[in-house]
Amino acid sequence: MKTAVRIIISLLVIVSVAVIPYRAYAQDSSILDGYIPAVPEEIDKELSDMGITPEKVDTDSLTVDKVIKNITEMLKNSISSPLKLLVSLLSVIMLCSIANVFAESAGGNVGTVFSVVSVLACSTITVTAASDALTAASKTLESGSVFLASFIPAFAGMVAASGHVSSAAMFNSVVMGGSQIFMQLASKVLVPVSMSVMGISLAGGVCPDLRLCSLAEAVKKTVIWILGLIITVFVALLAMQSFVTVPADNVGIKAARFTVSNSVPFIGGAVSDSLSVMYGGVGLIRNNFGVFGILAGGALILPSIISVLCYKLTFSLAAAASELFGINSLTGLLRCAEGVSSIIVAMLVSFLMMAVISISIMIFMAGGTV
Amino acid sequence: MNIIAFVGAGIIGTVLSVVLKQYKPEFSMYITLITGMLMLGAAVSAVKPALDMISSYMEIADPDSIYAEILIKTLAVCYLTQMAGESCSDAGETSIAAKIALAGKIAVVIIALPLFEKLMEVIKQLLV
Question: Residue B110: inside a domain, yes or no?
Fold first, then answer.
């Protein structure tokens, strides 16, 4: 009788456990309780409203429709100033073309005198806009660097907690180093170089005979090459170190499980399995946190990229209009401003790529082992 | 802009000037001057709507902008100087024409001074 009761109770327990649906949620973890993302308040609020927090990433907010909608919103917010700039530049170009028409018929130096004044006006408008964009981009890079400085150690801690200790140490040192090198390079080299290119383009606009625009173009190409090289080296270094450290960590995890399984009597197998479950749970939190990092980085840097791209498009359109009306002095200046916009976009995109690629590599490398 | 009236006024002014040059050369110069002024006035009045439109666009883009005013004033000074200088040259007074051109350039520099000031501020920002 007793045996029958025991069997019935055991069956009831088994059936109830099997029937009740269960899922692991990272939000219940207390690992991330003390973590506050170092992002501006409005971005933090926007992400929270979308259900994206360090503890949990709501996958419903990552549909293509919603992402496109968010990018369109960013575009709407960013396009106002570039549009105003385009109107100002087109107005100056039209005035120049009117002056040129009269100058051609008069045959005097009306066109030349007016051309100098219009180039000065256009230079001031263009350089002010480009300088503002550069300053904003520089501040964005600084914010991005501060965010990475707070995020990377926390993420490395997660990676270490999921059993990948050497990968975490490598990730922390490489990405923090890369981020710092990038920040220093951006503030000490790239921003001054971009400012110099603007200065060169200004001089080239006022005195088109100097043909300084080709120099500005060469600087732009060099900077983009340097950024490309840095990102390539960084990604290669991170990937190669991951290839070495991740298998070592996997061996460590498997050795730990084997030791527990064989050294603990009777329940060794169960403890070993619970270790796997624990690693799986931490892995879930780690992946959520990593995706949060990528999304927060994107939310921080993407508006700036879109804004600078709008400026680039504005300069490109104005240069095309200037070329159409045959105002060569303005065309050179506007092409140079477009080049500076390209440098700024390259800087921002490189920084974002560095963050996204490094976090993704760690998620992928550490993700498939538990 | 009535182009036929414009062309007609130009041809009539030229014929009158050429005819009068044979009998009264001093009146021929007056005819040339008056015809030139009328034609420039007509051309400028034809361009005025375009200039107003450009000016309004610039104000929409930046209401505090000084560029539209400076550029349009500069354009006006350039044309006036050009017309006056050429008239003097036609009358054989090249020395006076040169002085008018000089005065025009000085006027342009004075009008464009706020622009230089703004440019200097931008250059200072670039250097900091």
Answer: yes
Number of domains in chain B: 1
The answer to whether residue B115 sits within a structural domain is yes
CA distance B56 to chain A (A): 9
| Residue A88 to residue B65, Cβ atoms within 8 A | yes
In this complex, which of A88, A98, A131 lies closest to B122 when CB atoms are compared? A131
Cα-atom radius of gyration of chain B, to the nearest Å? 20
d(CA A209, CA A112): 13
Determine contact, residues B68/A91, Cβ cutoff 8 Å: yes
Which residues of A have a CB under 8 Å from any CB of B? Answer: 84-85, 87-88, 90-92, 94-95, 98-99, 102, 106, 108-110, 113-114, 117-118, 120-121, 123-125, 127-128, 131, 195, 198-199, 202
Query: In the Cβ-directed half-sphere of A270, how many Cα atoms lie within 13 Å?
Result: 3
Positive/negative CA dihedral, A36, A37, A38, A42? negative
pLDDT per position in chain A (370 positions), as tens? 566 666 666 665 565 555 454 454 544 555 566 666 677 777 777 777 777 777 777 777 777 887 788 888 888 877 888 888 888 888 888 888 877 776 666 556 666 777 778 788 888 888 888 888 888 888 888 888 888 888 888 888 888 887 788 888 888 888 888 878 877 877 777 778 877 877 777 777 777 677 677 777 788 888 888 888 888 888 888 888 888 887 888 888 788 878 877 777 777 778 878 877 877 777 778 888 888 888 888 888 888 898 889 999 999 999 999 888 888 778 888 888 888 888 888 888 888 888 888 888 888 877 654 4
Containing A196, the helix (H) or strand (E) segment is helix A191-206
Q: Is residue B111 part of a domain?
A: yes
- The domain in which residue B100 lies consists of 66-128
Distance CA A167, CA A160 (A): 7
Pairwise CB contact (< 8 Å): B126 & A127: yes
Q: Which residues of B touch A85 (CB under 8 A)?
A: 61
Dihedral sign for Cα A207, A211, A215, A218, please.
positive
Selection from A335, A318, A328, A97 nearest residue A206 by Cα: A328
- The dihedral through the CA atoms of A129, A131, A132, A133 has a sign that is positive
Six token digits for residue A282: 């931490």
Read off the pTM: 0.76
The two structure tokens encoding residue A143:
């914010």
Is B58 within the bounds of a domain? no
Residues 6 or more apart whose CB falls under 8 angstroms from that of A138 comprise A186, A187, A191
Q: How far apart are CA A136 and CA A304, in angstroms?
A: 7
A98, B51: Cβ pair inside 8 Å? yes
Compare all CA atoms of chain A with the CA of B58 and give the residue at the minimum distance.
A88
Helices then strands, each counted (H, E), chain A: 10, 0
φ, ψ (nearest 5 deg) of residue A52: -110, 105
ipTM score of complex: 0.74
